[in-house]
Amino acid sequence: MKQTDIAEFVRGLGIEASDAQVSMLLNYEEKLVERGGDLGLISRQDRERVRDRHILDCVRAAAPSPSVGLAYDLGSGGGLPGVVVAILRPELKVKLVERRALRAAFLEWIADELPLPNVEVSAGRIEDVPRGLADVCFARALASLPESWALASGLLKPGGRLIYFAGGQAELPGSLPDADSIRVLREKVLESAGPLAIITR
Questions:
Q1: Sheet holding 156-165, edge to edge
Q2: Residues facing 182 on adjacent strands
Q3: How far apart are CA 101 and CA 44, in angstroms?
Q4: CB-side exposure of 57: number of CA atoms within 13 Å?
Q5: Torsion angle, CA of 106/124/129/93, rounded to 10 degrees?
Q6: Angstrom distance (rounded) from CA 43 to CA 127
């Protein structure tokens, strides 16, 4: 299967990306392919489709993310989407929150290897992250939208937002406690991707 061109996809979403940033995305893709299956960060079946299923899917979160401020990637796993957004938004400080020690160690290694000075790894529980500080949180393969919002809402500043990766068949609620608005981005830019829900506090 022909792989989608990363630079073309990124710029097609209206995101400015330098050649160095595109090279960093390719480097991250290679590292996920090499180590992600063995560490349980991606399924072994996904090794042949890491780009479309993971890298490009996560690029979509960069467009509605702020250029500066503080982001939390909740249950970051292999850094999806936090690492991708950190590459494309170098002025945004991205904290990768991951309680599993082996995955947190992989994230530390990735942040050093690429390198990503705007990334910090928080090896611990989401519930222990400082509250009320984040401009944006990401939730991908974390939990249902109500559960993810319950975890994220207290971490956000007033006006902050959760960017939630919904499955293709996900039922999205019309309202959530303490949520000012829920916006759903349904643009079909990838065949395998569900909508993004943007919930503002």
A1: 119-122, 92-97, 69-74, 134-139, 156-165, 196-200, 181-185
A2: 199
A3: 21
A4: 25
A5: -10
A6: 27
**Could you tell me the maximum CA-CA distance found in the chain, to the nearest angstrom?**
44
Nearest to 9 by CA among 70, 54, 72: 54
Residue 153 lies in a domain: yes
Name the average pLDDT for the chain: 92
The secondary structure element, H or E, covering residue 147 is helix 145-152
- For the whole prediction, is pTM greater than 0.85? yes
pLDDT 10s digits, 31-86? 999 988 788 888 777 777 889 889 999 999 999 999 999 999 999 999 999 999 99
Decide if 95 is inside a domain: yes
Give dist(CA 19, CA 38) in Å, integer.
30
Counted domains in the chain: 1
Q: In terms of residue numbers, what domain contains 86? A: 57-200
Cis peptide before 115 (omega within 30 of 0): yes
Q: What is the CATH number of the domain that holds 193?
A: 3.40.50.150
